[in-house]
Structures are given as structure tokens and as C-alpha cells.
Design goal:
The chain is of the alpha/beta class. The protein contains six helices and nine strands. Helices cover 32% and strands 21% of the residues. Strands 1-2-3-9-8-4-7-5-6 form a nine-stranded mixed sheet.
């Protein structure tokens, strides 16, 4: 499968000003269809080449650029949850962002996505992943990786310090400073001014918030 992955540090998304670089994975409709996994088929925890390239280039940008926010633009059915799991694994295990405490917060707006991200993360980091979601009736705060619903976590003062914030479906971040996502970012940066932000979306040009 031919996949084009690029990192363009000059790319600027006005509606999401904290994102200064875009990772683009281009798949044809036929290729996307072949990547789709049915509900009964467990997703293998092995990165496909384009997934590994996207993760590698994200950390390459983090190491070489001065920006504190990046966006991975990946088509539907490309396995964004697996990319998130691999990024978190590297940070928690000290393979990336060396010298930091290795905590990652993964946030989404939909309970089903929270559950999906948790399941993939837990396969790679069993016992070190928690959930902070009222809908899922869990308020974990001590694990290395917390997967959270934005409605539950944006005002919480209990979750502590994180080195990386990953936002799934980041096109939902609105431009105004009083939104839940913006307030969460501000609160997390109070504890860690060097917080690294990574967003994932299939439509980086949209802002639905």
C-alpha cells in the first residue's frame, strides 16, 4: 500500500492555533476499505508502516521544532487509536520525551471513543491505564495514562501533571478560550508549562465546536 506521510512545520491552522504542524497520511478509498476491521475481529497490536511513520514523524517534529502542538491528519479507518496507543507507550516507557515523568492524558468527546482508546492502550500498557469518565463510571487519577471524556475531565483538579495531551477528533476544538478543551489545556499547562499537545483527526480543516 502506497502511503504519503509528510510533516510540514509551517502549516498553520488558524482555528487551532496551538497546532503548528500537520502530519498527513493519504490513503485511497480502496486502501481505506481494506484497512477496516469488523466489530468481531480484534485489531492486531502491530503498527502498519504508515501508522509507524506517522508516530515517528510526530516525535521527530517534537524533538526538532519549538512548537508545543501538532496535528496528525489521518483518514477514517486508518487506526488512529493504535497510533495513540503507540505514542503513549513510548512516552510512558521513556523512549520519547526522555527525562519527563511519562504521563499521558488522552481525551475525546464521545464515550465510545474513550472506551476504544482505552482498550487499545490497555493491550500495550496493561495495568498502567485508567479511565476518567462519568458515563463509564470510573474516575481513575493515578495511572500513567488516563483516557478521559472531555465533559468529565475539563474542570477536574485531581488528575495531576501530564507530559502529553492527546486529543482524539481534535477538529472539535473551538477557537474561543472558554471552551472545555481550551480550559483543560490551560489547567494542564498550569501544572506543566511544557505540556506537549497532539491532536488526531481525519478533517483538520473543520472546527465543529
Amino acid at each position: 500500500m502506497s502511503v504519503l506521510t509528510t510533516c510540514v512545520s509551517e502549516t498553520y491552522i488558524p482555528e487551532m492555533s496551538w497546532m503548528n504542524a500537520v502530519m498527513t497520511n493519504s490513503l485511497t478509498e480502496t486502501e481505506i476499505e481494506t484497512e477496516t476491521v469488523t466489530e468481531t475481529e480484534p485489531m492486531p497490536m502491530v503498527l502498519r508502516p504508515y501508522q509507524k511513520e506517522a508516530v515517528d514523524k510526530t516525535f521527530e517534529c517534537i524533538k526538532n521544532d519549538s512548537a508545543q502542538g501538532y496535528c496528525i491528519s489521518a483518514p477514517c479507518a486508518s487506526g488512529k487509536s493504535l497510533m495513540i496507543a503507540e505514542m503513549a507507550r513510548r512516552v510512558v516507557n521513556g523512549e520519547e520525551l526522555v527525562g519527563l515523568s511519562g504521563r499521558v492524558l488522552v481525551v475525546s468527546h464521545v464515550q465510545e471513543i474513550v472506551q476504544q482508546d482505552y482498550e487499545h492502550l490497555n493491550q500495550l500498557l496493561s495495568g498502567r491505564v485508567g479511565i476518567f469518565s462519568a458515563g463509564l463510571k470510573r474516575r481513575d487519577v493515578s495511572e500513567n495514562v488516563i483516557v478521559a471524556g472531555i465533559q468529565s475531565v475539563f474542570r477536574s483538579t485531581r488528575i495531576g501533571r501530564f507530559d502529553m495531551l492527546v486529543i482524539d477528533e481534535c477538529h472539535l476544538i473551538p477557537p474561543h478560550e472558554t471552551s472545555m478543551y481550551r480550559r483543560l489545556i490551560q489547567n494542564l499547562r498550569t501544572n506543566n508549562p511544557n505540556l506537549m499537545l497532539v491532536g488526531l483527526t481525519a478533517t483538520p480543516f473543520r472546527t465543529d465546536g
